[in-house]
Amino acid sequence: MTSPRAGGEHPDRLVVVGRIEGAFGLAGWVRVFSHTRPRDNLLAYDPWYIGDSPSAWRQVRVAETRAAPGKLFARIDGVEDRDAARALTGREIAVQREQFGPASAGEYYWFDLLGLEVVDLAGRILGRVSALRETGANDVLVVEGEERHLIPFLPGRVVREVDLERGTIRVDWNTEYL
Fold first, then answer.
1. What's the CA gap between 79 and 87, in Å, rounded?
2. What single DSSP character describes residue 83?
3. Is 178 contained in some domain?
4. Cα–Cα distance between 132 and 130 in angstroms, integer?
5. pLDDT in tens, 115-133
6. CA distance linking residue 47 with residue 27, whole number of Å
7. Which range of residues forms the domain containing residue 146?
8. In the predicted model, is pLDDT for residue 8 greater than 80?
9. What CATH number has the domain bearing residue 147?
10. 127 Ramachandran zone, left/alpha/beta (phi>0; psi -120 to 50)
C-alpha cells in the first residue's frame, strides 16, 4: 500500500492525512502528526484543510514547514502566536484527493480500500473494510460483517485481487482463522 495510510475520504473529496498535535514555540508553529508514508510527505501538500468534522473544513496555506527526527512542524498563514496555534490542537488535516498521483501498480491508497466488499474464494461475503491497521509485520484489513475479521493485507498470499472499479477485494481467508 502507499501513502497516505489512514483517515478516509470525505464527501467533498478531502482525504485526512494528519492532525495537529499542539503548539510549538511562541510564533504560531504547530506540531503535526502524519498518516502518510514517509511521514514527511505531509509537508509537501498545500493547501491543507483543517477541521474537526466533515462539514467544518477550512482551507489554510502552509507558510513554512520543518522536519526533525520523528517530528514535523508547520507554520500556517494567519496563525501568529502560541494561543492561536494551541486553538488548533486536535484538528484533522486533510488535502484534496486530486493532490495524490495515481498509486503504482499493485499498490493502493488506504482510503481507496475503505468500504470495499471483501469476498472469500468460495464467494462468501465477509463484510466491508471499515479500517486498516499497521502492525509492523504487515498491514491488516479490518472487515466488518456478520462477524469482525482481521485479515492480513498480503497481496498474492491472502489478498488475491483488489478490484477498485467493482468495489471488491477477493481473499484466501477461512472464517475459522483468528
1. 10
2. H
3. no
4. 7
5. 999 999 999 999 999 999 9
6. 20
7. 115-171
8. no
9. 2.30.30.240
10. left
Cell numbers for 7, please give them: 483517515
pLDDT at 147 over 70: yes
Distance between CA atoms of residues 4 and 34, nearest Å = 9
Reported as a pLDDT band with limits 50, 70 and 90, residue 10 is: very low
Separation in Å, CA 162 to CA 113, 144, 158, 165:
9, 17, 11, 9
The single-letter code of the amino acid at 138 is N
Give the integer Cα–Cα distance in Å for 82 and 127. 45
Residue type, 116: L
Q: Report the phi/psi class of residue 163: left, alpha or beta, with left for phi > 0 and alpha for psi in -120 to 50.
A: beta
Q: How high is the mean pLDDT of the chain?
A: 88
**CA 73 – CA 61 distance, rounded (Å):** 14
